[in-house]
């Protein structure tokens, strides 16, 4: 759930800032992200970001999968597939079979090893499993709307076993029925935990209205019904559609040499057969635009009121300039001394306020949120819409705020590279959602963002556009606040 930024004590402001007419100070050229990329003949991209300051490496597989690929009957199954990734695969079965081949013929037959050992020429030597639990390898994964990623972080000498395991798990899954039963229950338990949180219902209310025709495409968690009905056949369906080299990227960060990674990747992944482009065979849906604004009260036992307003924002590939303007403008509004924060937080109307855009290939949402109290709720919502109406005014932010936002966004990315194990996930997200070329030019295009770009973004996606207004509020608070659906959308539309 997008969270309102906590109130921060602002420095005293002598006067309301206005747009300055002075020429902005010259800025240094945007830095180049030192990544090296190679595309294998089968279409798989290998992305390497070296840094030898610490002898650690992260090996990550990113796949363009997630809820944006899921019709209702498959909703949540990309997440379940993520859980299955680290379970039994054909390489682990081969390892077990070789262990019992000569010492326990009965178990060899019980495991069905006759068929499995015939895969050895394709899989290779599985003996690295002898030490896999002793290598200090940390593995994890995540599922989002437009990417699923799997990763290992380990010490440099263990790079090859980590790459081998990623390869074996991606190419040779076994989809063991016992594993599926266990992981299906684990995913259902996650859903139950999420549904115990009031914010879950606020998010669902937003998704079901903002993306009203295809809400499952924006909901990675899925539902109890779809997850409970998951089968190994459905897992194989997801694998056959999306787990192919030309829909995948291998990201390696840390104490590595790009040429060596490329050579290993060619050896391990180069013979993975290329498949049809899944997004040609199974095109993404087109989310229809909102036709009207809607206000909804979401009643939950919460202590404070959270207001959320959502719009459909720009899509990568359709309006790239709008995505850059969205990032810069959102950053300006989040700063403690911005007009937005002074009007909502410093005024005492809200404990926190935020506006942000979530970069997506398939319609990124714009959401504004604020936390307030029952006695101030109506005034806070009115003040929010008053600010929205002023977003396109020349004096809404200064030239200095604009320049600072672009420089600080770049600095944030630099600080993110301090921990390359985490930055690998950033690379996965951008590769899947926007493509590596967009990411390479990100900072340069941020620097080029102008007032006119921001004004166009605001007028195209926010001001006077259909939107969804929600209030997460308890019945007791609502008795005091008396918010109406009209209040939540800024009055009669």
Please tell me about this protein's structure.
The chain folds into two domains: 36-281, Cytochrome Bc1 Complex, Chain A, domain 1 (2-Layer Sandwich), CATH 3.30.830.10; 294-488, Cytochrome Bc1 Complex, Chain A, domain 1 (2-Layer Sandwich), CATH 3.30.830.10. Helix 6 (159-171) packs parallel to helix 11. The strands form two sheets. A six-stranded mixed sheet has the order 1-2-6-3-5-4, with helices on both faces. It has a five-stranded mixed sheet with strand order 7-11-8-10-9, with helices on both faces. It contains 22 helices and eleven strands. With 493 residues, the chain is an alpha+beta fold. A hairpin with a 7-residue loop joins strand 9 (352-357) and strand 10. The relative contact order is 0.17.
Question: What labels describe this entry?
Answer:
493 residues; alpha+beta; Cytochrome Bc1 Complex, Chain A, domain 1; 2 domains; six-stranded mixed beta sheet; five-stranded mixed beta sheet; 11 strands; 15% strand; globular; disordered N terminus
């Amino acid at each position: 759930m997008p969270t309102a930024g906590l109130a921060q004590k602002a420095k005293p402001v002598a006067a309301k800032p206005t747009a300055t007419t002075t020429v902005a100070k010259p800025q240094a050229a945007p830095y180049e992200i030192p990544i090296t990329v190679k595309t294998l003949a089968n279409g798989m991209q290998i992305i390497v970001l070296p840094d030898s300051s610490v002898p650690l490496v992260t090996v990550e597989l990113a796949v363009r999968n997630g809820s944006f690929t899921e019709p209702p009957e498959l909703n949540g199954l990309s997440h379940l597939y993520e859980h299955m990734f680290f379970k039994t695969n054909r390489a682990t079965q081969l390892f077990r079979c070789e262990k019992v081949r000569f010492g326990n013929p009965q178990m060899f037959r019980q495991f069905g090893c006759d068929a499995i050992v015939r895969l050895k020429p394709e899989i290779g030597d599985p003996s690295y499993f002898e030490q896999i639990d002793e290598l200090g390898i940390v593995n994890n994964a995540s599922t989002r709307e437009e990417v699923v990623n799997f990763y290992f972080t380990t010490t440099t000498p263990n790079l090859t076993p980590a790459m081998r395991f990623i390869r074996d798990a991606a190419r040779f899954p076994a989809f063991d029925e016992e594993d599926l039963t266990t992981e299906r229950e684990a995913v259902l338990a996650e859903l139950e935990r999420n549904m115990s949180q009031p914010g879950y219902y606020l998010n669902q209310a937003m998704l079901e209205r903002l993306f009203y025709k295809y809400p499952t495409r924006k909901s990675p968690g899925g539902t109890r019904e779809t997850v409970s009905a998951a089968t190994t056949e459905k897992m194989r369906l997801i694998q056959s559609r999306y787990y192919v080299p030309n829909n995948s990227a291998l990201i390696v960060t840390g104490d590595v040499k790009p040429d060596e990674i490329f050579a290993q990747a060619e050896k391990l992944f180069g013979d993975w057969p290329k498949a049809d482009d899944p997004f040609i065979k199974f095109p993404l849906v087109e989310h229809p635009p909102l036709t009207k604004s809607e206000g909804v009260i979401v009643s939950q036992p919460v202590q404070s009121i959270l207001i959320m307003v959502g719009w459909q924002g720009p899509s990568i590939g359709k309006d790239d300039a709008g995505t850059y303007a969205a990032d810069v403008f959102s950053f300006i509004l989040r700063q403690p001394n911005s007009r937005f924060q002074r009007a909502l937080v410093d005024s005492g109307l809200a404990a926190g306020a935020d506006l942000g855009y979530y970069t997506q290939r398939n319609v990124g949402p714009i959401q504004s949120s604020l936390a307030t109290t029952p006695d101030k709720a109506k005034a806070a919502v009115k003040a929010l819409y008053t600010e929205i109406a002023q977003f396109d005014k020349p004096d809404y932010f200064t030239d200095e705020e604009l320049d600072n936002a672009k420089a600080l966004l770049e600095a944030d990315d630099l600080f993110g590279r301090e921990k390359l194990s985490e930055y690998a996930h950033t690379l996965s997200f951008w590769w899947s959602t926007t493509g590596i070329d967009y990411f390479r030019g990100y900072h340069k295009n941020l620097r080029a963002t102008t007032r006119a770009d921001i004004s166009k973004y605001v007028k195209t996606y926010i001001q006077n556009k259909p939107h969804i207004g929600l209030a997460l509020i308890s019945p007791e608070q609502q008795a005091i606040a008396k918010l109406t659906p009209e209040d939540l959308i800024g009055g009669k539309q």
